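Course assignment 3, question 2. Fill in each field.
Student: A.L.
Task: Predict the tertiary structure for the chain below.
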Amino acid sequence: MGVAYSVGEVDHLYTFFVEWSPENIYSHKHSRKQQEFLQVHPDALSVIGSLLKDSPPENWQIVSVKQQKRRTSVCSSADSESDDLLPVLINHSQILKELHLEQLMSHIPARAQGNQWKLVYSTAVHGTSLRTLYRQMAELDRPVLMVIRDTDGQVFGAFSSDPFRVSSYCYGTGETFLYSFSPEFQVFRWTGENSYFVRGFLDSLQMGGGGGPFGLWLDADLYRGSSYSCNTFCNRPLSLHHDFTVQELEVWSFV
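Answer field:
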């Protein structure tokens, strides 16, 4: 059960643990015990005592950890390297590895940063059906990340500001982007040329366009796909070949 403390109490406790470390109490395990003392203000001592009294010492553990990376400022460049910790994936991914997560994190919009990632659709779990993909997202009202691995072993996909759905018009915002790890990681953001971000049909899903092929296109069975340069994202083909076959496909939401 969580316990709430005032800002002052937390400050006292934080100062105590920052200034105290096990090295101040014991030296090497074969050497003689050393004693060093930390001076603590009486008021801080009483606060620390009140915080610790409800929990017996055997339930406490103090560990040394490296300085945690701080979250990238909302005002920082989207192309700068991410200082974020890796996201927490609620479910196991058949595709995403630590390297993929590290590189994607710096490009996820600020409103999705710090959230856990939940798998809402997977061909391995739900089968290969675009209709099922739409059905799995019917209740969502937040961004989603699509991740594809094709039969060439290449990983690529798209971040959509809106969950995928059937629509008679294009939807989405300038947060939407395409990305590829084939052969190295690249992100393709909105050019401002048009607003053909996403359009969903029962027989296909389209992302990007403008006077030609789509930046990313998938068929009704989520088996065949294609990727061409498009005006919306000015992207290169996401896969090694314009036309590809899907091996695995996942869609993640941010909760």
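Instructor remarks: Confidence is low (pLDDT under 50) at residues 14-38, 62-84. The chain has five helices and ten strands.
Grade: pending
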